[in-house]
Write a structure and sequence with these properties.
The protein is an all-alpha fold and 464 residues long. The chain is 64% helix and 3% strand. The protein is built from 19 helices and four strands. The protein has helices at 2-13, 19-37, 41-61, 66-91, 101-113, 123-134, 138-146, 150-175, 179-183, 187-194, 229-247, 254-269, 273-290, 298-322, 335-338, 344-347, 352-358, 393-423, 430-449; strands at residues 209-212, 215-218, 382-383, 386-387. The strands form two sheets. A two-stranded antiparallel ribbon has the order 1-2. A two-stranded antiparallel sheet has the order 3-4. The two termini are 35 Å apart.
């Protein structure tokens, strides 16, 4: 009733009320109240994951409401946390934190202290920075609380696979579209594809197109908020669906094969070189970690071989029908071209020591990334003739939370890498071991991808 009253209030106040806006506000308010009240956290978290993977992209780009869509993401997560926190406190039971929580609490502390950094600036920068650096932290606790059994592992993998399949299908369709056809989907798509104003001017964004064979093309955003989103979720889901296929616990395997092919389509048609390399690394890491299963390693290898065999004709048909011009972006990652080439983003890592020397505690919260414009633009320090950038995950961390944040993040990543490699053999349940090998393989790939892009600021990679 409260949601309906508030939605009607919006309709009354707006001169030309939009039915879509009215329904959206009503649905959002009902969802928030439901998430706060729900005790089925596995369903609540699944709803948020489905929103991030399937709906947020259009909510942001289709309507052009960038800040509202970003705020809704955080509100949904906070709603679950408020409900869970209230129940924990009212139970009066002793609060027990999961293993490794010390690292997460240290990260929260480092980010919290940055609010007092003189360079942070306004309160809006603090709010934006907290959102950007801490919005995915609850998923650490969600995962530990929810993913404990074979059934939950399968449910998680199927959820990831469905999201990857949907994004792969949409990405394949968008691959066929011209930039202007995709721009017609909404104001946000138009800004993403055709740009805004003049590049370099205040508020100006360059057009996100490239030319091949004399034709302008665009990297498909799929159902996400940025180009290559389908490749991001596909790269995470692919090893997991292969693991589910390898365990042989499902009576019908063809749905899992379909999910794997959907993930591959998202990776290929996403036209992102980083996503392709990351996916290959994840699959290779999965193969290596699968050897901990002993003789049963043949099942994961057979599953990979089966999917590869099925993928080849699918890609061949796609090239035959739509042409292979769009795949020209991948020539730079061919072995003969990759050797000796220098990734410009990776080159940003070279500036980190100088940046730490000049601003050891960072430029403050909300200075880079999607929230950089919140509360007004900030002036970055000039290091070696350039302003600080967020081209890689590690530059992104140094820029906002400085050396303390970089130490905590890198140390925690190393701790997880060592834990995964050394402890996987101790998991007695071989089925769960295979599942964990797949999920951990994706984490290995994301850690490496961090050298060429800010992974935690992505709605595709951050929650994982």
């Amino acid at each position: 009733v409260l949601a309906l009253v508030l939605a009607l209030a919006v309709a009354i106040e707006v001169k030309k009320p939009s039915i879509v806006l009215l329904i959206g506000v009503l649905a959002a308010l009902v969802s928030i109240v439901s998430l706060v009240m729900s005790t089925r956290y596995e369903i609540s978290v699944a709803v948020v994951i489905l929103y991030l993977g399937l709906l947020e992209g259009y909510a942001k780009l289709g309507t052009g409401s960038h800040q509202a869509a970003a705020a809704l993401r955080d509100i949904l997560i906070i709603a679950i946390c408020l409900g869970a926190g209230a129940r924990i406190l009212s139970s009066r039971e002793k609060i027990r934190f999961p293993p490794l929580s010390g690292w997460v609490l240290a990260w929260i502390g480092v980010v919290a202290v940055e609010a007092f950094n003189p360079k942070t600036g306004s309160l809006l920068h603090v709010v934006g920075g907290y959102s950007q650096q801490l919005e995915w932290v609850p998923f650490f606790f969600f995962a530990y609380a929810l993913i404990r059994t074979r059934r939950r592992f399968r449910a998680l993998i199927l959820l990831m696979g469905v999201v990857a399949l949907a994004n792969g299908a949409v990405s394949t369709y968008q691959y066929r579209l011209s930039p202007h056809a995709l721009a017609a989907w909404g104001p946000g798509y138009r800004e993403l594809v055709l740009g805004v104003g003049e590049e370099g001017e205040k508020g100006g964004l360059a057009a996100r197109t490239y030319a091949t064979e004399g034709e302008a093309r665009v990297r498909p955003p799929a159902l996400g908020t940025d180009a290559g989103f389908g490749g991001g979720v596909g790269g995470i889901a692919l090893p997991a669906t292969l693991a589910l296929l390898a365990t042989g616990t499902l009576r019908r395997r063809w749905p899992v094969i379909l999910l794997s092919l959907g993930a591959i389509l998202g990776i290929v048609t996403g036209l992102g070189r980083l996503q392709v390399v990351g996916s290959v690394l994840a699959v290779m890491a999965f193969i290596a970690l699968s050897f901990s299963a002993g003789r049963r390693v043949t099942r994961p290898l057979a599953a990979i071989l089966l999917v590869v065999v099925l993928t080849i004709p699918v890609i061949a048909v796609l090239i035959a029908v739509e042409g292979g011009g769009g795949f020209s972006r991948y020539t730079s990652i061919e072995p003969e071209n990759a050797v000796g080439s220098k990734d410009k983003k990776t080159g940003s890592l070279e500036h980190i020591p100088a940046a730490i020397a000049k601003v050891p505690f960072g430029e403050g919260l909300g200075t880079v990334g999607a929230v950089a414009g919140l509360g007004g633009k900030t002036t970055h320090s000039i290091v070696e003739g350039k302003g600080l950038s967020a081209e890689t995950e590690y530059n992104f961390i140094v820029d906002e939370v400085g050396l303390p944040g970089l130490i905590v993040w890198v140390a925690f990543s190393i701790r997880l890498l060592v834990l995964g490699v050394k402890s996987l053999r101790r998991v007695r349940d071989l089925e769960i071991r295979i599942y964990m090998a797949a999920l951990f393989a994706s984490f290995i790939a994301l850690t490496i991808e961090g050298f060429s892009g800010p992974t935690t600021s992505s709605a595709a990679l951050g929650p994982f």
